[in-house]
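Could you show me some protein's one-letter sequence and the numbers that encode its backbone in two labelled lines?

___
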Amino acid sequence: MDYQMDLCYEAMNGSCWKYVRPHAIHVPMLIAIMLIISMTFIGNLLVIISIGHFRQLHTPTNQLILSLALCDFLIGLFVMPLSAVRSMQGCWYFGEFLCKLHTCIDITLSTSSIFHLVSVSAERFCAVCGPLRYRSCFGLSTVLLMISISWLIPGIFAYVMTFLEINIHGGKDFYDAHVRCVGGCHVFFSHGPAVFTSVFSFYIPGFIIVVIYSRIYMVARNQERSIRLQLNQLRRVYPSRDVQLQTRKATVTIAIVVGAFLVCWTPFFLCNILNPFIGYATPPMLIDVLMWFGYANSTLNPFIYAFMHSWCRKAVRIIVTGEIFKNNSSRKDLYT
């Protein structure tokens, strides 16, 4: 890649390098980042307004979706804009404390978003695999507990990692000699913290998500076979087209949910866990690109978990057309 390197602070010793890219690279990169930020902000805001405004959507299940949307909305509001400045220029102009605070919020919200996806997958598992016990298992108290865990544990974890500097434990000398510079805000992990962070924030939650949705897929297939057998016993040679379409839709939905999560986050966490063991040879710009792939999961979540449902699309139409400001709009029936 052809680009120049200037200093972030020309008059200071030990300044970080600043990226000066050709316009052919800089402009498309800026457009892509602004598009991701805008879609993340608007998409999740629409989900928050929809679930918050319409009384019909005030269910324990939708509280999980609302909390997920709030988490992703905050990523678009607080994390992405400052990360965009760092990604575009390679410099951080907001001081060391705000660097730590931004890193802490970034780790908190990104991990919280992944934890929310685990909670949503657990809710879907109970709905599909144990429908008779669903209401007793997933009441408001259970959902609030899952939401609390999805926020508190990532928050504590991120604070310990950043403000107590556990992330550089065992690698401080290398960090001071080769990474730290004036005008930089590097998310650095030494060997042990890199492994622990990746396993805690991605690999364990990712494994749980894959296992749960694999189980849901198997149950859906078994249900299809059972229905097909019952129809054959009623001397109907071919299964109902509705059953086939529902099964196909469930399969596609599961593939989208799991695929989007893995495609967005696997490259970053694979790089994160390997980078210390290859002497931090991964170019910073590549790490930035992989980080934005991870952020894009927050952009896609409202489309995957909300906009795919007809009730959400109807709610969005009401919001966009201004009908939300009419009297009793919160009582509209979104399921007809």
User: Anything to note?
Assistant: Residues 4-331 form a domain with the Rhopdopsin 7-helix transmembrane proteins fold (CATH 1.20.1070.10). Strands lie at 4-7, 17-20. The mean pLDDT is 89.
